[in-house]
Design brief:
Radius of gyration: 36 Å
Distance between the termini: 148 Å
Structural class: alpha+beta
Shape: elongated
Number of strands: 10
Number of domains: 2
Largest sheet: 6 strands, antiparallel
Length: 287
């Protein structure tokens, strides 16, 4: 009788151990199945659309937002977080951009300061400032990292008429018989400098608090602060740009793709070009 009791006790222990093993195995199988069914959640991160070299100012077309499962520490999650910043190392195509891979150039509401400017220049380029007076620049269409071409319109009339008070009576009589031309038709427009990189955009310093308080007391309207584009340019082209700025003419900028290195060969345009190209019939004088 005592031996039978021991047998029942051993059998009960074995059954309990077996039940425990089966329970653990069942739980492990359920957890494994649940992990297989539930995928690792993805997260949107900023990825380089093409290779980016060090000291490159990131543009909107350089990056794309993609969902990834493996997220490195410090990954940027919004494109606007890195646009306008400069890379501190080479970034491969398809690589997740981390915030420690970029550095701010002092970006404030789309305006960048002049910090780190020498880093962006090589040994054969210099930086010059061009006032942001054209429409694209004034309305914020030109950003750091953009590439622009310079359009220029100049009055090509070089002769200067004599002052009337310096003419003799005979010369004055002859001068008054000469029909006066509309000099607005003597302008010529040309495509000059091409593929200039916009390094930064600077803004004139804010008005001192004392001057600002004085303007408010005088109820003078607040004047917007002027801006200028910092262009990366060849030294000889910088002299050309200096001449264009100092001439009595109109400068406009045209945007181009930053990957387009083509130098366009276009003809200057004046009134004669328009007449010949579009077949404009000039009015005949009345008899």
């Amino acid at each position: 009788m005592k031996r039978r009791s021991w047998l029942w006790l051993i059998a009960s222990i074995l059954l309990a151990v077996l039940a425990g093993v089966l329970a653990i195995a069942t739980l492990n199988r359920a957890a494994t199945q649940q992990m297989a069914v539930t995928p690792v959640p993805k997260q949107a991160v900023v990825v380089a659309r093409q290779p980016l070299a060090a000291n490159t100012i990131i543009r909107a077309d350089n990056v794309v937002v993609e969902e990834r499962q493996e997220i490195p520490s410090g990954a940027a999650v919004r494109a606007q977080d890195v646009i306008g910043l400069m890379t501190v190392r080479d970034i491969a195509q398809g690589e997740v951009i981390r915030m420690q891979d970029v550095v701010s150039l002092g970006l404030t509401e789309g305006i960048t300061g002049t910090r780190n400017l020498p880093v962006l220049l090589g040994n054969d380029k210099i930086a010059v400032a061009l006032p942001a007076n054209d429409i694209l620049s004034q309305w914020g269409a030109v950003l750091p990292g953009d590439h622009v071409d310079v359009l220029f319109t100049l009055d090509v009339i070089l002769e200067t008429p004599l002052r009337l008070d310096q003419m003799t009576p005979a010369d004055l009589e002859v001068y008054q018989t000469i029909p006066q031309r509309d000099q607005s038709l003597d302008k010529v427009s040309v495509l000059t400098l091409q593929n200039l990189e916009v390094l930064q955009i600077v803004e004139e310093p804010q008005v001192a608090p004392e001057e600002q308080a004085q303007q408010q007391q005088q109820q003078a309207p607040a004047q917007p602060r002027r801006r200028a584009l910092i262009l990366k340019i060849d030294p000889q082209d910088a002299v050309v740009l200096k001449y264009l700025r100092d001439s009595v003419g109109q400068i406009d900028l045209a945007l181009r793709s930053p990957t387009n290195n083509t130098l366009f060969d276009v003809d200057p345009v004046n009134i004669n070009y328009l007449v010949l190209r579009y077949g404009i019939a000039l009015p005949q004088p009345l008899e």
